[in-house]
Amino acid sequence: MNGKQQAKASTMPKGTRSAGRAAEFDKEFVADSFRAPTPRERVQWRRAKGKRGRPRQGRGVKVISVSVERGLLRQCDSLAKRLNISRASLISRGLKRMLSAGFPG
Q1: Distance CA 103, CA 97 (A)
Q2: What's the mean pLDDT when you consider all of the chain?
Q3: Residues 13-42 as b or e (16 or more Cβ within 10 Å = b)
Q4: How many angstroms from the chain centroid is the CA of residue 23?
Q5: How far apart are CA 53 and CA 56, in angstroms?
Q6: Sequential DSSP letters for the chain
Q7: How far is residue 62's CA from residue 66's CA, in Å, rounded to a whole number?
Q8: Do residues 79 and 93 touch, judged by C-beta distance below 8 A?
Q9: Percent of the chain residues past pLDDT 90, beyond the cut
Q10: Residue-wise pLDDT tens digits, 26-75
Q11: Is 18 left (phi over 0), alpha (psi -120 to 50) or beta?
């Protein structure tokens, strides 16, 4: 070993000096030694790779478009802000209360 190699080897942390451990990464095509993932590993990969997304509420959510008077919308937003909830949550709560109260309709 020349002086440059010795200096490099001595600065490496203990346990990593072993040539056997790093030798597999010195090969040209490391990917050729990989195997196909097992079914369990495929499931793990899909979960890790997938985006988190929004949490499910009930049986999921359907996005709709509703027309609301501007003044009523301002009041709705103001109340939602005071309650520290979203506009959609406030509207959902109101609909649930109306439906559970048994209003004719």
Answers
A1: 9
A2: 81
A3: eeeeeeeeeeeeeeeeeeeeeeeeeeeeee
A4: 35
A5: 9
A6: --HHHHHHHHHSPTTS--HHHHHGGGSS-GGGG--PPPHHHHHHHHHHHS---PPP-TT----------HHHHHHHHHHHHHHT--HHHHHHHHHHHHHHTT---
A7: 12
A8: no
A9: 39
A10: 777 767 778 888 999 999 998 888 777 777 777 888 889 999 999 999 99
A11: beta
The model's pTM is: 0.47
Say how far apart CA 6 and CA 38 lie, in whole Å.
42
d(CA 2, CA 22): 20
**Among residues 66, 54, 53, 55, which one has the least CA distance to residue 92?**
66
- 37's tokens: 């993932």
What is the Cα–Cα distance from 2 to 18, expressed in whole angstroms? 18
- Comparing 93 with 47, which gets the higher pLDDT? 93
What residue has token string 């000096």?
Answer: 17
